[in-house]
Amino acid sequence: MTCSPLQNLSYGGFESGEDFYPDKIPYPCHEPYYKIVPAVASGQSLPGTFTDSTQGIWKGRERSGKLSQCSPVCGQPSTSIDQDQGALGASKAKLGNFPWQALTVIYGRGGGALLGDRWILTAAHTIYPKNSYFQKNQHMDVFLGHTDIEEIIKLGAHSVRRVIVHPDYRPEEANNFEGDIALLELQNSVPLSPNLLPICLPDNETLYSSGLMGYVSGFGMERGRLVSKLKYVSLPIAKREACEAWLLEKNRTEVFSSNMFCAGDRTLKQDACQGDSGGVFAVWDNTTERWKATGIVSWGIDCSKGYGFYTKVLNYMDWLKSVMEEET
After folding, report:
1. Domain with 25 in it: what CATH number?
2. CA distance 64 to 42
3. Is residue 80 part of a domain?
């Protein structure tokens, strides 16, 4: 009996030709970018094999009848970040340093980060800017996979299927960046590679300890001009009290809620800037040995003149999971 071709489940799988009962096909994931995980609630060991049944269809070994999936591996770039950067200015990123980095072009340049192989984490205000007229159906381009502006655009834009903005975000409130988080679902999954890999999401408060260093990358402004190469800076998470005192000193009225954190050092001229919004604050987790997106570039006062303020991703994990796991 001839079986129909085995469906290509994801970029982690493969396509097969016609095969015959009782053939078996190993189902490897495309390592190291994917790993195989059992079907939800199957409770079985990892199968990795499909058997040609007498009904002429391919079956996995799981009792649930559900197929295992190849899950993208996150937070493990192939090129380590050069941590010996100077105290002044930003450093040029090498290919593979920040493989999750997205360039968005909606109302100008913005940033984002790849989650899995079809989601972009970004800031809501890059989609609905503060204090400006916005169109609901504004065209948006998402670019991935390179550190050079010309090269990343040559690779082509990824179509966006859905835009989901957090319900707490209020574009009409200029001084309130509460809920400044959004997800873009890509029309198609992207093929992972050394230059295109997702970042992990945070899972504990220790990743927000004051003094902990993180990296912010983007294609935004530097010395008053948009950069042509991806740049990054290393910033310490600041004490909340220091940032509150600084805002008071500046007579600022922006909301600094518990759903935000601040980073930077008043003695160093390093910071995110216009055009970097939506990019992530990446922290190395020693426990899991992976990079995690603990924050999203949200708001600030000028550039490189104090602290920057970030959406605290950990506080939005339930919302993120509910959106990404929703069947549509």
Report:
1. 2.10.70
2. 5
3. no
- Give the count of alpha carbons within 13 A of 110, CB side only: 28
Q: What is the DSSP pairing of strand 101-105 with strand 109-115?
A: antiparallel
Question: What's the mean pLDDT when you consider all of the chain?
Answer: 83
Report, as an integer, the average pLDDT of 111-134: 91
DSSP per-residue codes, 100-132: TEEEEESSSEEEEEEETTTEEEE-GGGTS-TTS
> Does residue 194 share a domain with residue 52?
no
Domain presence at residue 31: yes
pLDDT of residue 304: 67
How far apart are the C-alpha atoms of 28 and 54, rounded to whole Å?
Answer: 23
Same domain, 181 and 245: yes
Q: Band of the pLDDT at 60, cuts 50, 70, 90?
A: very low
Q: How far is CA 197 from the centre of its chain?
A: 9
Q: List alpha helices for the chain, DSSP H.
A: 149-154, 240-249, 317-324
Same domain membership, residue 142 and residue 50 = no
> Whole domain around residue 113: which residue ranges?
94-324
The dihedral formed by the CA atoms of 148, 150, 153 and 154, expressed in degrees to the nearest 10:
-110
Distance separating alpha carbons of residues 266 and 131, to the nearest angstrom: 28
Same domain flag for 205 and 274:
yes
- Rounded Cα gap, residues 262 and 239, in angstroms: 8
Instruction: Give the active site residues.
Output: 125, 180, 277
The pair of three-digit structure tokens given for residue 183, joined into one six-digit string: 């997800």
**Residue range 255-264: average pLDDT?**
96
Task: Kindly state whether residues 242 and 282 are assigned to the same domain.
Answer: yes
* pTM, rounded to two decimals: 0.85
Q: 166 near 182, Cβ under 8 Å?
A: yes
DSSP symbols for 268-286 = S-----TT-TT-EEEEEET
Tell which wins on pLDDT, 18 or 237: 237
* Domain of residue 123, CATH code: 2.40.10.10
